[in-house]
Amino acid sequence: MKGPSYNIYFEPDNLDGALACMDEHGYCVIRGIIDQELVRVLKASIDEILDPERDLPPASNRFHVTFAEYSEPIWRLAEIPAYMNYVEARTGTDELSWHRSAAILRTPGDAMGGWHTDYYPTMPVPTTADEVLNRGQAVGGGLFYLNGSHPDRSGLAVIEGSHSPDWPGPDGFEMTADRKSFHPEGDDPASWYGKMDVPGCVPLVADPGDLICFMPYTYHANMATHERRYTCGLGFRAKSFSIDAPWPLPQSAKDRIAALPDQLQRYAEGYTSIDESWSPGN
Ligand SMILES: [Fe+2]
Question: In what order do the strands lie in the sheet with 96-106?
Fold first, then answer.
């Protein structure tokens, strides 16, 4: 599989180039946002919070959807100018709310994930907690793949040019009814395809400390895992993009907000946390 014929790599001081690449192709990689010491510290924090007993079996994964409520080191991201400059450029403002956070731990043998968009293109009314939060400009990749990304080891693959709401899908495939994924023509209409042999597939190559960025609609998939892999992210949205979450703020969120240093308190207003057990009927 060949890499793209255009440049996708940008230094943190070339945000104009990075954003133009995202506009045109739907994704890019910003180099060296975090240093290798912070990469090490974040991996240790993921081990401590997601696998404290070191009992995660081979060929599996664990996700944490409120990681920044529990991890102190991830808040260092909010004090890295290169990262926050990118966030401000994406949102168009420096008036930001902490939106959500995540950490993912995978072990060798974990299979490739299905192609999908994080967006909910056809959602009239939210029916899950993710649908409450993944709206408008508040969606969009900004995860640190702390082992880097490479098709030989795992990481992220994207489909170039898939970042518009009327993208027809790859040649030979058809979209699922909710446009969350696609499958070969004639397959089960609800199925999500999970192989790399899709037209437009770009297996991303990135180093630890790089930020892999993609647009809200961009279709992407986690590549098959061949090493113990660590991923995390701390996301923000414009404070003016308010979200009225239908669940209460948990104590872990209140505790984290209380513990944030003064210079980070500005991000606390508007944080909703997430209750994955929420549904409209409860
Ligand atoms: Fe995703």
Answer: 9-10, 27-30, 211-214, 142-145, 229-238, 96-106, 61-64
